[in-house]
Write a structure and sequence with these properties.
Blueprint: H1 15-19, H2 22-40, E1 50-54, E2 67-69, E3 85-87, E4 93-95, H3 113-123, E5 127-131, H4 134-138, E6 148-152, E7 168-174, H5 184-193, E8 199-202, E9 206-211, H6 214-236, H7 252-268, H8 271-274, H9 293-306, H10 308-315, H11 319-338, H12 353-369, H13 375-390, H14 401-411, H15 416-425
Helix pairs in contact: 3-5, 7-14, 9-13, 10-12, 11-13
Amino acid sequence: MAGVAAANGFPVLNLQAYLEGKTVLETRALVADLCRQFYTLGWVSGTGGSITIKVHDDSIPKPDQLIVMSPSGVQKERMISEDMYVLSSGGEVLSKPCPKSYPHKTPKCSDCAPLFMKAYQMCNAGAVIHSHGMESCLVTMINPLSNEFRIAHMEMIKGIFGHGYYDELVIPIIENTAYERELTKSLSEAISAYPKTTAVLVRNHGIYVWGDSWISAKTQAECYHYLFDAAIKLHQLGIDWTSPSHGFIKNESYQRVSKRKFEVYANAGLAFQASKPSRKCIVLDIEGTTTPISFVTEILFPYARDNVRKHLISTYDTIETKDDIELLRAQVLDDLEKGILGCTPIPPDDAGKEEVIESLVVNVEAMIKADRKITALKQLQGHIWRTGYDNNELQGVVFNDVPEALERWHDGGIKREVALMVRLGFLIGKSI
């Protein structure tokens, strides 16, 4: 069929017959099916988002292949193949859906069409996905001044075309506009400036992802959303997702942001002074909110690691430590059954204090090294920190405005609960 002139410049003798043929119909159905799937992922909810796929035909050069595109402003999870638009390679509408009765809107091709066409023309794409997934929106808001998203040393980077595990993934971020079509110029500029990219993020909005086929575009979109979700969660933990080591964020600007976050919570407490408290407690995050993250990572964690043996020896016969040991023993038994590396059996109590403590130290050090988030370890660490405070070996550190806020809440009638929060945090210790 290639090389035969036809209407709209499409190299097929009978265009109408081709539009009604198997290849186009299958692509229409595929777009509808993918939209339903993407709806379950939260990528195209609220009629937002869209997808477009080229009609693959080996007999037609890729630049000349027809384009199937989802409509705008419709319930994406309820679409059927007949709802799709078919466009020429130049963007001219060749086939459009028939109008439906109320409450359906008049059919309209996707508002993303101009941006989709840029991806087809500039990147030789075979499919383009526009997602409104929450991750793709939030990740652009972490640093509102940045025009790039960067992440390194994450396994799912391998799912992005042209990237391996050791590569840094860089995605340009463009600013949102009131109307989708107004993004066309900035998206084109981003593609030109980042020739390796297969995606462009739109701040406070979503992402455009493309690939040489619908499978490539879908795979990359899934990997991008995974990486965005990982970055958001690492950010919440105070971990730097942009560096290969993924260490804790220690720069001053991050600490200032964390401090401001506490100030927001603190200022909210002013409302309790104006009237009788309607709530009995205030729940606060600790790391980065009341206390610098560095205090936890550089003081508390190392202290617990270095004082395991000393703590167990001095408190071995107490009810509290006996409970800690039983909890650790149960955890180790479970770890041994699962084949977790680094754990060794803890002997029974009649084996002798020294032998039991030695095995406990080996297991606890392995848990700490693996950074395991388990109750048995956390409970023991908490008791070690309390002992450190009681012996004046630890001194809590908080941001300067924390004591003032706690006093304000205390004076406003929130007393025992705030004290309990501080006590559980083991962060202020004897300083209050």
